[in-house]
Amino acid sequence: MIAAPGDHAALLARDFPILGFPTSRGKRLAFLDSAASSQKPQAVIDALVHYYTHDNANIHRGVYELAQRATEAFELARAKVAGFINAAEPAELIWTRNTTEAINLVSYSWGLANLKAGDAILTSQLEHHSNLVPWQLLAAKTGAELRFIEVDGDGLHKLDTLDALLENVKLVALSHVSNTLGTIVPLETIVPRAHAAGAIVLVDGAQSVPHFKIDVQALDVDFFAASGHKMCGPTGIGFLYGKRALLDAMPPFLTGGDMIKEVSYEDTTFSELPWKFEAGTSNIADAVGLGAAVDYLEAVGMDWITAHDRALLAYTLERLEPFAKRGLVVYGPKSLADRSGVLSFNFADIHAHDLASILDTEGVCVRAGHHCTMPLMEKMGWPATARASFYLYNTEEDVDQLVTGLEKAAHVFKIA
Amino acid sequence: MDDFYKEYILDHYRNPRNFGQLEQPDATAEDLNPLCGDRIRFDLKVDAEGRVTDVRFSGKGCAISQASASMLSESLKGEKLDDVARMPQERVLENIGIGISAARMKCAMLGLKVAKSAALGRLAQWPDEENGEGSPST
């Protein structure tokens, strides 16, 4: 079902208590920065409170009822998130702090054990630093070569030379959706060709899993990393999905308690999946919170969220169009089909930071800067961009408020 | 912040003073604001007594960082290098003449940090963190 952007989203917005509080200037909050971190519905806040009020104890080794309840809540959340992305089994879902930690886990564990000089890692020019810096370090440590799929001026991957780029590549590491431009990366084209060339594929799904129905088995990706806090969940919890065969063969990343089967003074046997990769006491409460977030998203409907993002993006582009003659430039793919609800732009000679400061005075939250994609900004020749991003609770009213803020910026900077 | 974008700030932003680079500077430094990637470079000419005789700055950034650097550049000539190295953040805040939010403090201080770095011959601390205040710049 595709609803108009306004009605249903306005109802959903009531599930998010923070959206009901005005700013210190008395402005209605127009939160357009969900690509950085989403707001949390009451159901997730309640799940955290419920866990700490009724179920809190350390997991896995407690024999008493409370520890059993905590363990069950923790593992139930794992099963929910695994089901949400259609993993073959919950054991393929490893809790991490966030996407960055999930990618580092693969880099340190799989990467150091499997890469050597002469091998190559293939990523793209639009990656977030979290899917670039770990590979730079891995390349430096192993002698492997780091290669890039070029992107064009609209932020679309140039795939005409993909097969040549894939030579000797052991790992392809790509964002599913660009956090700066909203580009949806055509995994269905890239993944089979990467596999045919003998590479495995890691996907940074931080910007896709909150907005699209993800099926890791249909995508046939080998690793999929994401963060809970961008998908209505708490901060400090994220996950790594990996195919069992790969995870089983990998050495542990962090070591210590909870990831062992048997320890003597000399030697250790490690736990089975997924606990082999979860050393120390996990972030139990936030995992439970993420389980609640997934319940919430499934109740709203991922297909509705995808359609809503797109409808709001179309409405925004329509409202921004009249500003073009005054120097407003929108970046990223031109076709709505190629992009998610992320909109980077600049307005005349107003620096993105100044623009964000002025929008803030109107209650409009946007991000400004390089969005952790400094090489992409350098390549495109943009010192900074302002970025508005949408989620299920955003409405046309938020966009209208953005437009009011832009008019104010034009007035302050005397742009006719 | 509504009041921040005064006429003179916009004027310095759009018509920065002493903008450019010196061919053979006696002291030079460049740095960026890690929060936004904005970059500023300061070039100084210094006479035998260690006084600044000429100054240029270059770079790209927001109105606050560029106007702050432009206004600072106007007040450096005749200063002793040692005094530039010790220049407190208040100097920039007085130039700006109006309150600025914590979120934008680094924008205002980037120019001074770079000028001080040139005078010191090494990267200076953030002027707003010299007394152990402020957050670490990641």
Describe this structure in words.
The complex is a heterodimer of chains A (416) and B (138). Chain A is α/β, with parallel strands linked by helices. Chain A has helices at 7-13, 42-55, 65-84, 99-114, 133-142, 162-165, 187-196, 216-219, 244-249, 284-300, 302-320, 352-361, 374-380, 396-412, and strands spanning 30-31, 93-96, 120-124, 145-149, 169-175, 200-204, 223-227, 238-242, 260-263, 268-270, 328-330, 342-347, 364-365, 367-369, 385-389. Chain A has two domains: 7-31 and 302-412, Aspartate Aminotransferase, domain 1, CATH 3.90.1150; 45-299, Type I PLP-dependent aspartate aminotransferase-like (Major domain) (Aspartate Aminotransferase, domain 2, 3-Layer(aba) Sandwich), CATH 3.40.640.10. Chain A is built from 14 helices and 15 strands. In chain A, α3 (65-84) crosses α10 (284-300), α4 (99-114) runs parallel beside α5 and α12 (352-361) crosses α14 (396-412). Chain B has 138 residues and is an alpha+beta fold. Chain B has one domain (7-121): Alpha-Beta Complex (Sufe protein. Chain: A). Chain B has helices spanning 7-14, 63-76, 81-85, 89-96, 105-120, and strands at 27-32, 39-46, 52-60. In chain B, β1 (27-32) and β2 (39-46) form a beta hairpin. Residues 133-138 of chain B have low confidence and may be disordered. The A-B interface holds A 349-354, 357-358, 360-361, 368-370, 374, 377, 383-384, 412-414 and B 1-2, 4-5, 10, 14, 35-38, 60-64, 66, 101, 103-104, 107.
